[in-house]
Amino acid sequence: MSFQEKQLPADASFGDKALNWIDARFPLSSTWKAHLSEYYAPKNFNFLYVFGSLALLVLVIQIVTGIFLVMHYKPDANLAFASVEYIMRDVPWGWLVRYMHSTGASAFFIVVYIHMLRGLLYGSYRKPRELVWLFGVGIFLCLMAEAFFGYLLPWGQMSYWGAQVIVNLFGAIPFIGPDLSLWIRGDYVVSDATLNRFFAFHVIAIPLVLIGLVIAHIVALHEVGSSNPDGVEIKDTVTESGIPLDGIAFHPYYSVHDIFIVTIFLLIFSAVVFFAPEMGGYFLEYNNFIPANPLKTPPHIAPVWYFTPFYSILRATTSDFVYWLQAGVAAYVALIILRTRLASKCKIAAAVIGLLIIVGMFIFDAKFWGVVLMGVSVMIMFGLPWLDTSPVKSIRYRPGWHKYIYIVFGIAFIVLGYLGVQPPTPVGTAIAQVCTFLYFGFFLLMPWWSATGTFKPVPARVVYHPH
Amino acid sequence: MRLLKKLIAAAVLLPGLALASEGGYPLDQAPDYTKDMVALQDGARLFVNYCLSCHSASSMRYNRLRDIGLTEQQIKDNLLFTSDKVGGMMTVAMSGKDAKAWFGAEPPDLSVIARAKASSAGSGPDYLYTYLRTFYKDDTRPTGWNNLVFPNVGMPHVLWELQGIRTAKFEDVKDPHEEGKTEHKFVGFQQVTPGTLTPVQYDKAVADLVSYMTWMAEPVQTTRKRIGVWVLLFLGVCVVLTWRLNASYWKDVR
User: Fold this and answer.
1) Any CB–CB contact under 8 A between A341 and chain B?
2) Is A401 helix (H, G, I), strand (E, B) or coil?
3) Bridge partners, B191 (sequence order)
4) Nearest by CB to B235, which of A263, A287, A289?
5) Segments in chain A below pLDDT 70
6) Which of A155, A356, B35, B180 is packed most tightly, with the most Cβ within 10 A?
7) Residue B195 belongs to what H/E stretch?
8) Rounded to two decimals, what is the model's pTM?
């Protein structure tokens, strides 16, 4: 087909002509329509649905401030710490850019955790949105990597020893571990070589993957359409022209809505940036104002708050706890064999894998299984769309007692996070072990509990009260 | 109900309990003079005269002292000891190697020390304020000085002429938590020779010095908060506008 350009009347305005010229060469109007002005979103969103937009805003803040920081930061073990102070003192508005970036890191996790919680509550990961969820978990993994690599860059004591501890975790992997951690560091200890490669990952590699995944996340979402707090598919009830009856155009309705929430978010964000940038040692750790010293280990090394739930699971895995884990694995395999209708091949496979894990727990030390557990605690989120077998999506129409399961899970997650900040104590470890069981129980037993109970009827149309 | 009352009482009282530093000595609350130009200038004078001989503040430029009300000429005439350029950094002539040989450890750079020393025991300024006021004569130490907040510290009491020489009295008391063990407990200072300052004047001088170090750890802090007020006011207005904008669109959605 030959190139065709729509003919506009001769008296058309310059703007119309320019747009027509572009549209013939690039899908500008159609993209605008498909993703904004004619993207129909359910009208019954509550405030929890704004955190996706906020996450995008924080991503932009991090990229823009990051670019300006890179202009003055020196990825060199001898210069890095001083270059951050140079940014804080001598670069015009450098302090603002730096505080926005450091506060943005924590804000990113706050926003993303709430975004994920919303997905959990309203079943946003259920069919047909599995890929939206999978891309989302991928984004979360990238975010963790980005935060980890970035945290080394200020080259303070906590940067240095945090990286040392985490890289050493890879050393717990049987056979290849020590060589693997050596390969990651590029040296026998965290050093200039490590700083340089972490810098490369932080400013180039991970952001590229992150942006790609964010685009995939949004494209997949707009392909299937947004879910909503009722878990009703709005595309099931459409007008003659195919527009969902309960849908409203994203632009202008949700764009003005998001702008409103964005100003509230910026108000809170600015309050932290301008009045409490250290946030009591949680956003900027006090120890990190001491330059990295490879010869002086701080008495208490704690990761930044957003990693602590997973770090707690790692620390909870003591050699005594491994017996409990073995019992847990055995019980879970028994549950699969006795209480599922899986093919016998699958059951045999589950039994073999379970047996291998139990035997493996006798052979390899607890540190390795702690690392495995920490990894699985994040990776298990990939399985959510297939673990949830409830006939309804939203918590609104689930049995009342399901709410308590979510509350217990939420408390376990927060308690794990709190304990991860504290120095380990015997009581703390015992509580973390109970919470570890609750955390994994929530996901692994989901195929059973999520389908149990009396479900409320889901309405055909969304519930909406005009405001 | 009684349990609840007790819990509430405990929750109210807990923050009031003095938390101990790593040396086991509770930290005093440092007075905040970071907005008092006279105090900051006095602190800068003490800092340059007493601290900069061994410690550096290598992120701090001399001419940044203009922010606390000094002119470049005043800085050049009175404070410029370790550099010949007023735009130079507060570096130190002593080499790290010598320092290690003399004091057992390299004196840390003090640029951001007031931020680094914060802990659950108190803020960074609290730590410095208590630390600089709890030196005592101890002949078992190589320098002849010891400290309550930082036991067996390598640093001698540089401000001793101002405070005078003091010794610390300790008593061996029974450990209430462990049977048969005794605790070496600090009970008070004893002034041996008077200093050039009275105790009250000395506390004020240390407070000035600590306020200066707090300011130096983040010279922009006052500006930051001043700008922050305007940013929040601006955003507050924006919230009202965007709230009404949103409402005007959404009134059509039924």
Assistant:
1) no
2) helix
3) B166
4) A263
5) 1
6) A155
7) none
8) 0.93
